[in-house]
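Quick one before lunch.
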Amino acid sequence: MSKPRVGILMGSQSDAEVMAQASQVLTEFSVEHEVKILSAHRAPDKTAEYARSAADRGIEVLIAGAGAAAHLAGTLAAHSLLPVIGVPLAASSLQGMDALLATVQMPGGIPVATMAIGKAGAKNAALFAIQILSRQDAGLFEKLAQYRAEMRAAF
Ligand code: RP5
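Model of the 5-O-phosphono-beta-D-ribofuranose complex:
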């Protein structure tokens, strides 16, 4: 097995079902990835250490899904120069609006590419990661073109 190119992080085991959408898409495109539970609040040191060492391990893009006061994506972005894609999750009585605002409203200088709330966001996070990787990977670019063509044909 080759080294993971994408890291999928999530704030809790309770996020796993939704974030599996991201993993499924990356698997479909044969993109090596790793999945980890990390928390900006419950495991701040571990989260910072993961972000700081990810690029040196060959990771090229980070995807972070979290609910409620969702600071995981922003924390990863603060500790890494890798592109970070945030997926807000519906995990509280605010149905993901809290996570959406917490993820998208980054201060100027530390961007997080924020996707839709929930499963569509998790799926698109993987596709967006693939789009980033495909700029330097002709095989992946071709698979992406094929994916779009099949989508159009099936519509
Ligand atoms: C967030 O709080 C997690 O990302 C999760 O979406 C939410 C609830 O976590 P649990 O209380 O289920 O562990 O940090």
